[in-house]
Write a structure and sequence with these properties.
Blueprint: H1 2-17, E1 21-23, H2 34-43, E2 50-54, H3 59-65, E3 71-75, H4 81-86, E4 89-92, H5 94-105
Parallel strand pairs: 1-4, 2-3, 2-4
Helix pairs in contact: 2-3
Length: 111
């Protein structure tokens, strides 16, 4: 588990160093809307692949982006290094950023 955490930490660090991380808010919350969710990505200048990371499993965001090609949605708890490196951009919700910092700061073998 420690090796996996280090791999995830390095993958996220690489994304930050390369300027491929964006923090975005305003995702659809009432009903799924592919147009609104894709509009957020487009307004951020994300034209290639992206991984959208949410704090908790967000069914609405997942349903909004499931038909957008090369875009994946994962909660922080399910995040791994492969997912981060597979997509060009890493898009975090504000809540996901806090949880990701806590997850990567954990010491020892707990996960």
């Amino acid at each position: 588990k420690t090796a996996r955490r280090v791999a995830l930490r390095n993958a996220v660090y690489t994304k930050f160093c390369d300027g491929e991380v964006v923090i975005a808010d305003g995702w659809p919350s009432g009903a799924p809307s592919t147009k609104a969710a894709h509009g957020i990505l487009t307004s951020l200048g994300i034209e290639r692949s992206a991984l959208v990371v949410t704090g908790e499993h967000d069914r609405i965001v997942h349903m909004s982006l499931r038909n957008v090609p090369h875009v994946d949605v994962r909660p922080v708890a399910d995040l791994n290094a492969r997912d981060v490196l597979l997509r060009r951009h890493l898009v975090l919700t504000p809540g996901a950023l806090d949880q990701l910092q806590q997850r990567l700061a954990k010491a020892g073998g707990e996960d």
